[in-house]
Every structure is written in C-alpha cells, then in structure tokens.
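Our consortium's second objective concerns turning raw sequence data into structural hypotheses that experimental partners can test. To show how far this objective has progressed, the report includes one record in full. It was chosen at random from the queue rather than selected for favorable results. The single chain below, 225 residues long, was entered without modification.
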Amino acid sequence: MKPKLVVLTGAGISAESGLRTFRDSDGLWENYRVEDVATPRAWKKDMDLVLRFYNERRRDVLAAQPNAAHLGLAGLEACYNVHIVTQNIDDLHERAGSSKVLHLHGEILTMRSERDASIIYEIRTDIQRGDLAPDGAQLRPNIVWFEEEVPMINHAIPLMQEADIFVLVGSSLAVYPAAGLLQFVPPGAPKYILDKVIPEVRYNNVIPIEKPATEGIAELLRLLM
C-alpha cells in the first residue's frame, strides 16, 4: 500500500504557466472586478460580459502548458497514492499526468445548464448567448462563483481526513471553504506548505518551503522521493 499523499493547490501553481487570478492585481481579474464577472448577480446583470470573460479564460487555459510543479506532482504517483484537490479551474494537473484530481471550484473546459447543475458538457470553444441545454436553459460556465455553494467540498473532506502526508501549493488560504480543509488533516501527518509567501497556519507538523511552486515542488521531491 502506497502512503496517501493529499495535495491542495491554488492559483500559485498555475501562475507559472501564465494563468493569473484576481488576487494578482488589487482585486482585479484580467482587468475585471470579480463582482462583475464571477458572481450569480453578475450573470443576471450582464450575461454577455460574463460569457466573454470566461470564453477568454478558456482560451488562456487551452494555450497554457503544465509547468514543472504540475509535472512533479504527477511524478509522485510512482511512490505515493496521490490525490490532488485543486481550487483552480484549469486542466493542467490532468495534462501533466495526475490521475486523481478533484476540482473544488469547477472546470473551465466544461459548461452546464444554468438551471440544473447536473447537466454538464465538455466545451473547447466559446459559449454564446442562446446556447441551450436539453432542459431549455442557457448554458453557463461550469464554475463555482463567489456566493455559490461548493458541493465538492464534501468529497474533499474525507480525502483530507485520510492523508498520511499533506501538501499545500500556491494557496493564500484566503478563500473559504477551501481554506478550512486543513483542519481535517490528521494532526500527526506531515504538512508541507509551499508558496512564495507562507500563509499563517496554526497546525502541528508544518514544514514550510517558501519558494515559487516550481522551485518548491523540486525541493519537495528531494525530500519525499
């Protein structure tokens, strides 16, 4: 039985692939205010703006490539039972070769009915106003917006509880409920925290690695492999 290694990743791991979030620039996400493009209120107010914004993000993701941090985590599967829980909406973990990836906040390369969240399709092009799901509702990005529930958190908690080793990469721990997942990691499990700026945590067995994701994962591999 391989040890169970659970990884929680945030925007910092994809930043080195050229993908940014609103936290990079004073509350703006690619020059948009979050409340204008990433809330249910924004969708009701200006559907065309929200669709345009996420169509741009989808093109950005398709143009990006996994970096050494993504590839390093995938490589850990040779020695560990690796489960990745990510706050990111891109597919870079999957393209790097990770086999068990749980997306807390949705996936930019899928779309769903605005009425029924269980009606989901893959999408590699743009979503347009008037693109309808079989239930007759407008299709929207399959993204968990601010002010919406995070249903996958209930799948992430048991993973945290079963972790033999926990790794946090590129997250400021500022977005809940994802930031609260650390409280479910067993107290005795080693907790590696990798970021350019280590967030304040109050847990036992914390090993900080204060480096960007690619450099931090390289050091983690030296420690674990």
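The partners drew two points from this record. The chain has two domains: 1-18+66-105+149-225, 20-63+108-143. The domain at 1-18+66-105+149-225 is CATH 3.40.50.1220 (Rossmann fold). Both points have been shared with the crystallography group to help prioritize constructs.
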